[in-house]
Amino acid sequence: MSHMSSSPSESRREKARRRAGEFPAPPEPLAVPVFDSHTHLDLTVQEAGVPGGGSADPVESLITAAAKAGVDRIVQVGVDESSSRWGAELAARHPSVLAAVALHPNEAPLLSDLDESLRVIEALAQQPRVRGIGETGLDTFRTGEEGRAAQEAGFRGHIAIAKRYGKALIIHDRDAHEDVLRVLDEEGAPETVVMHCFSGDAAFATECVRRGFYLSFAGTVTFANAGNLREAAALTPAGQLMVETDAPYLTPMPHRGRPNASYLIPLTVRALAETRGSDLDELCAAISANGERVFGPWS
């Protein structure tokens, strides 16, 4: 998640209400299915609804719309105790959903008892269909100096949980590249690290690739001013590349500003294939294989 969203501001709620129902038309489906490595189905329903309007089961509608577009697997990502618990429960009953659980870095400074909240995350991490610890990391964009100690403590706690249970670590890194690497170096990175919504340049991408991290690109890679992300995507080995929505945010072009959902992944994948000069089907197959390697089988 690119922003803290478990309690959106009044203006964001108003904006979401205006946008509700304004999902873009479905893109051409992918011939070779991929997965969405990072989405927030709960927040998408809360803030934007579902494509096509009302539904008896809005979460199921989002999953179905994604499958029709060639996005047949989803990683539902938590940002606090309640969303992490919700995601774990959804994954336990839905064959195309796996869960990641964590306290978002902007959540950590707000908690009355960080250690107790981390114990909740650790308990959820032991469930078989919880395959990731995230999103966790550092965010100096929204949290000032006074909150950074709590952010870092939370990040270190999540790293320990990921290592203890052999789960992928999913990192939120906003304006904090050097500090993220410093903490990972000090703690020792887990075997599998995913840089969610990769936001660095080619130099930072090279450093992450060298360390064996996976780089997950969101709709931001399609933005006109995102040349640095396209350079990073171009140099990322196919075996370390993933794609995500971070829905309901970061909608790919040409629909920037409208609600995002997993069914729009084909727009980002096609942009990545063009940027890399890759065959689309081969890139989709590589992304799909990376998902199974990072998160294990969905079913």
Structural overview:
The chain has 299 residues and is of the alpha/beta class. The chain has a single domain (30-295), classed as Alpha-Beta Barrel (TIM Barrel). It is built from eleven helices and eight strands. It has helices spanning 10-19, 41-48, 58-68, 81-93, 114-125, 148-165, 177-187, 202-210, 227-235, 265-276, 280-295, and strands at 34-39, 71-77, 97-101, 130-139, 168-174, 193-195, 214-217, 241-243. Helix 8 packs parallel to helix 9. Pfam families: TatD_DNase. InterPro entries: DNase_TatD-rel_CS, Metal_Hydrolase, TatD-like, TatD/YcfH-like. Keywords: Hydrolase, Metal-binding. It comes from Paractinoplanes aksuensis.
Helices and strands, with pairings:
Elements: H1 10-19, E1 34-39, H2 41-48, H3 58-68, E2 71-77, H4 81-93, E3 97-101, H5 114-125, E4 130-139, H6 148-165, E5 168-174, H7 177-187, E6 193-195, H8 202-210, E7 214-217, H9 227-235, E8 241-243, H10 265-276, H11 280-295
Parallel strand pairs: 1-2, 2-3, 3-4, 4-5, 5-6, 6-7, 7-8
Helix pairs in contact: 4-5, 5-6, 8-9
Brief overview:
One of its GO terms (molecular function) is hydrolase activity. The chain has 299 residues and is an alpha/beta fold.
Keyword list:
DNase_TatD-rel_CS, single chain, eight-stranded parallel sheet, 299 residues, TIM Barrel, alpha/beta, TatD family hydrolase, disordered N terminus, 15% strand, 43% helix
User: What structural class results from the helix and strand content?
Assistant: alpha/beta
CATH architecture assignment? Alpha-Beta Barrel
Task: Identify the overall geometry.
Answer: globular
Counting H and I runs of at least 4 residues, what is the number of helices?
11
Task: Please identify the top-level CATH class.
Answer: Alpha Beta
**Ends apart, CA distance between termini:** 26 Å
Largest sheet: 8 strands, parallel
> What is the name of the CATH topology?
TIM Barrel
InterPro entries: DNase_TatD-rel_CS, Metal_Hydrolase, TatD-like, TatD/YcfH-like
Protein name: TatD family hydrolase
GO molecular function: hydrolase activity
Region (Disordered): 1-32
